[in-house]
Amino acid sequence: MNKRTYGKVCCVVNCKNTQYNTKNVHFYSFSMKPHKVEQREKWIKAVRRRNADGSLWQPNKDTKICSEHFIGNAKSEHPLSPCFLPTIFL
């Protein structure tokens, strides 16, 4: 996908949310910060996405996940919050 053409797009398989076709939806990046490695790894595991060759998918700096995958439609930075990880996948 061309970022300039599509803008923010949710990385979750079968989620069609983009910045252009949704309202009141936020898009969050997978943190690249060293102190957030554990949160990043948990998000990757929660998304349950694989590459075509079966290897574990890895997000890049432009990868986004939309707020519809978080309880309350928003992520939390607190590790004990139910909104710390994406848990809603239809």
From TrEMBL:
It holds the Pfam family THAP. SUPFAM superfamilies: Glucocorticoid receptor-like (DNA-binding domain). It comes from the Eukaryota. Residues 1-89 form the THAP-type domain. InterPro entries: THAP_domain_protein, THAP_Znf. Keywords: DNA-binding, Metal-binding, Zinc, Zinc-finger. GO terms for molecular function: DNA binding; zinc ion binding. Transmembrane segments: none annotated. This is THAP-type domain-containing protein. It comes from Aromia moschata. The lineage of its organism: Eukaryota, Metazoa, Ecdysozoa, Arthropoda, Hexapoda.
